Amino acid sequence: MEDNFYLDPSLEKTFDIEAELKKLPDKPGVYIMHDKDDTIIYVGKAVILKNRVKSYFRSTKKTAKIQKMVSLIARFEYIVTDSELEALVLENNLIKEHSPKYNTMLKDDKTYPYIKVTVGETFPRVLFSRSMKKDRSKYFGPFTSATAVKDTIELINKLYKLRTCNKVFPRDVGKDRPCLNYHIKQCMAPCQGYISREAYAERVSKALEFLNGNYKPIIRELEEKMEEASENMEFEAAIEYRELLTSVKMVAQKQKITDSDFEDKDVIGLAKGEHDAVVQVFFIRGGKLIGREHFYMTQVSDDEPKDILSDFVKQYYAGTPFIPKELMLREEMEDANVIEQWLTSRKGSRVHIRIPKIGNKEKLVELAAKNAMLVLSKDRERIKREEGRTIGAVKEICALLDIPSVQRMEAFDISNISGFETVGSMVVYEKGKPKRSDYRKFKIKTVSGQDDYACMKEVLTRRFIHGMEEKKQLDEKEIAHELGSFTKFPDLLLMDGGRGQVNIALEVLQELKISIPVCGMVKDDNHRTRGLYYNNIELPIDTHSEGFKLITRIQDEAHRFAIEYHRSLRSKTQVKSILDDIPGIGPARRKALMRHFDNINDIRNATVEELMQIPEIPEKNAEEIVLFFRKG
Q1: Integer CA distances (angstroms), 471 to 409, 467, 475, 510, in order
Q2: Predicted structure pTM score
Q3: Is residue 625 predicted with pLDDT exceeding 50?
């Protein structure tokens, strides 16, 4: 019997969906759904492409979300893979790259801190790290609190007096005088040969024991030293040992035992709301609960919990450098076996996905789910307020201007001091939120003196011509999905001013034959926003509304971004003029200093050793720089 396919009459005629469905192979792979604008709206994987893709177009009962998505499909494409595992990896990569509208998405931009012990070095160090690399170092974590990690590293360096410098051994032994850490008895100065490699390695071994959770030896040692110092009436030393002992005990108390097998596990719980879901993860390392974190999943309205968990696991563990030996979940995932294989291949050793039914492990999974529900309940009102501040505010602005909808807004500002180093800023808001990756700065090239209108005309002209050229290049390459920040044109242009600035923008758009609504953000005599200038009319706006607050935020952000850029240029000019007076510092070394240090004060306060970290600055020049600022 022939399949009955659902075809939306609005679909493009150039792509015959029914014909293309018959060509689908019975192989594993990934399918990609496009809308009429060629935007990718959904990415999925399939064990058999033919069966999976056809199922979307059959006249069977579907969720509202899938119905809506199918009604927007203008064409689809697919990529055949050798296995379902390969399809899973490719699906993850494509979802991450394109963020399709109808895929369940993990809202997460977090990076987790690790403690890194550089055991591959001659004299190892204990460092803070945001990534876990395949080097010869030992990593501990991930942890959820960067502050706690930094405090722990500081404590370890105090306890075991390990080095914190970037010197390379044995190359740098004896080259410089010992640093301040040696003089305050915080380092044993391996740079001077004051401690043997074997003695230093013993200290590192104790630090590793500490990081593995064995606190008893150091607690006993500190107690003995504190008592000895007290008996010898060395009260300052006794107080120091007491403070270290207190710090160690605080770290030890935070590590609560949760499991007797001392394995690395992630316990995952889920709570589902109407439109969002929260996933709570308990991080268990070496049998100890070291922290927890929650994550938001969007576009989940019609999804089953098991599907949300599957999407979370695939997206989260594709991005985190550490994969534990075991994941504990509340319910089965359909593709659990494939995900297990994928996690195992990523980790390099066997990973298990378990669904505990009884005992402490089941209670732990239940606890994670309860915590997820608490977060969801607590944040429901916050999410509602956030939507009011962003999407709701945009809707208010649209209603005021009588514009159907706005996704992307761009605002521009000019900054100068008496015409010196004039700059322009472009800030971007999408769905009422700043999109900082698309912000752009302009250094004015064609205008001399203080002429804000001429400067604004230059900035807008450069912005849109650049965008048109980018788009033309993309069209020629037929890569429409690779949109840069200039290629995406705004749905609304916001000018920092009234009639004059708006007319400049309209003039530029008219010359370039571009149609975009332009709105002025008008200020009163006290420099406060009072209304919007649109279509030759000043529209009053309720100063208590979310729309007004959003306009004010955008205006302030455009101004801040321009001022910040202007300040950095002035700072660099100042740095350049001062560095010119230092003997032996020519253009190349001056540029190297300006690249390495943020400002003149950092250069002024730098030591000879810090300056010598720059390859272009030898010891002689470093000494000249220090001497120059010391004299000044």
Answers
A1: 19, 6, 6, 19
A2: 0.45
A3: yes
pLDDT of residue 159 exceeding 60, the answer is: yes
Average pLDDT (459-464) is: 92
Could you tell me what percent of the chain has a pLDDT over 90? 16
Locate tokens 């770290």: which residue? 251
CA–CA dist 316, 108 (Å, integer): 8
- What distance in Å separates the CA atoms of residue 56 and residue 53, rounded to the nearest whole number? 6
How many residues comprise the chain?
632
Q: Is 494 helix (H, G, I), strand (E, B) or coil?
A: strand
Q: How far apart are CA 393 and CA 69, in angstroms?
A: 26
Quickly tell me which residue has 């790259």 as its tokens: 97
Domains and CATH numbers, the chain: 17-102 (3.40.1440.10), 114-213 (no CATH), 265-379 (3.30.420.10), 408-546 (3.30.420.340), 580-631 (1.10.150.20)
State the DSSP code for 392. Answer: I
DSSP secondary structure letters along 223-260:
HHHHHHHHHTT-HHHHHHHHHHHHHHHHHHHH-EE--T
The terminus-to-terminus CA distance of the chain in angstroms comes to 92
Instruction: With a cut of 50, say whether residue 481 has pLDDT above it.
Output: no
Distance (Å, rounded) from C-alpha 279 to C-alpha 270?
Answer: 5
Structure tokens at 367: 């606890």
**Pure H helices in 258-358:** 305-319, 336-347
Per-residue pLDDT band at 427 (split at 50, 70, 90): very high
